[in-house]
Predict the structure.
Amino acid sequence: MRPQASHAESGFTLIELLYTMSIVGILSAMAMASFHVYREDVEYRKAEYDLRNARTALELGDQEAPAGLSVPLTDTDTSGGPVLGALADILPGAVTSPDVLLGAQYQSCENRDPANWTINQLLLSRPCKADRYTSYLKHCNGVEVIQRNLAQGDVC
């Protein structure tokens, strides 16, 4: 006959199980916080990529733009894909990522005093799932500014 195990020797105690569950809970909370930061960073990187893409397209469009062309600040939709409508004239071939709002403004500098601060080109790339965005601004006098800003409320 086999000797019977006593009750104290079989399984885990309630304290051991609670201790293990609390450690797992703390580790999962830490992982979720890291995941949130990582996800937001990926969304912001998508917006930066879209801004670089749009800037290249804007330089192409600036060379081909008719004299006196002016496009007020216009936003794309957030479904992603090729830029359409009025923006297609100044951003030929530009493509946006899903969940990124790309805004562009263009004003010809031909009849303007190049010494002033008139805005020639403005690009704003704002991710829907992050709390920061990036922008590119070029004045008629040639000064270029790239900014990384905190978003103010929901943009999408």
Q: What stands out?
A: The beta strands are 70-75, 81-82, 95-96, 100-107, 119-127, 132-139, 144-150.
